[in-house]
Write a structure and sequence with these properties.
mainly alpha
């Protein structure tokens, strides 16, 4: 088959000048890309290295590690650096907010009036910085709900923050153990659908063997509505319900868990 005369025939042997130019351009681009990566690493790595203690400490805070009084204050300059950086790293900013949350909680629990306002202000700024970087972080929305209650009392926006937290992270166990405490502390003013969500989350914790947290929540902020939480356990696994009941019984709580046979009453309690 003959090719149309207007189509140029390929040259045999050798490489065209255009092909040589393209190959050189590709090699130059690859070299520049490699140099850029090296330069970026040299610029960013010291920052990442400096942020590691903050992220490790935040993980320990979430695991409820004990710290000496004011030990976390030594990290405040590093928290400032993270929050003032020209670029955002969601993990670092969340870690900064977690540590500032613990500092604020300590001030609230210890009645440290002289530092309370400063720590709450710092926490609010930290949470807003972190949410601007990662607006889908369900933990941060729950933390913002807690902070707003502490600072402003009952306000409608707190329900919005809480609802966002549940919508963005409905099945995150590590968030649930903290979010449930916040939600149950304001349970009486939750709209019915959000209240049902809170009850389901508690049942999910029991069903997932998130055990000691569920018991602490039940006997703490959940106790004023413990009948509602117990009723929500009807679809939880039998073994989980029995274990939950057994532990509460051991701690002196005579309650009725759906589907679990009560033990004999103890007259000495």
């Amino acid at each position: 088959m003959l090719l149309p005369s207007r189509w140029p025939l390929p040259r045999r042997g050798g490489i065209s000048g255009m092909e040589t130019f393209a190959a050189a351009a590709i090699r130059l681009f690859a070299a520049l890309l490699g140099l850029s990566a090296i330069a970026w690493g040299m610029a960013v790595f010291p920052t990442l290295w400096a942020q590691l203690p903050v992220e490790h400490t935040a993980a320990a805070v979430l695991n409820r590690a004990a710290f000496a009084p004011h030990a976390l204050l030594a990290l405040v300059p590093a928290l400032d650096d993270i929050e003032q950086a020209s670029y955002c790293r969601p993990g670092a900013l969340r870690s900064a907010a977690i540590i500032r949350l613990r500092l604020a909680e300590n001030a609230v629990a210890g009645g440290e009036r002289l530092v309370l306002d400063d720590r709450l202000n710092a926490l609010e700024h930290s949470i807003h910085q972190a949410l601007a970087c990662e607006p889908t972080d369900s933990f941060l929305w729950a933390a913002l709900a807690w902070l707003d209650v502490v600072r402003r009392g009952r306000q409608p926006q707190q329900l919005t923050y809480l609802r966002l937290s549940y919508q963005l992270g409905p099945n995150e166990g590590w968030v649930a153990t903290r979010r449930s405490r916040v939600a149950l502390s304001m349970f009486r003013r939750l709209p019915p659908d959000l209240a049902d969500t809170v009850v389901r989350e508690f049942a999910h914790m029991v069903n997932s063997w998130i055990y000691w947290d569920a018991i602490a929540i039940f006997t703490g902020p959940g106790w004023p509505v413990h009948d509602r939480l117990l009723a929500g356990l009807k679809d939880v696994g039998q073994r989980q319900r029995e274990a939950f009941y057994s532990e509460l019984y051991t701690e002196g709580y005579d309650i009725v868990v759906p589907g679990v046979k009560p033990r004999d009453p103890r007259p000495w309690y």
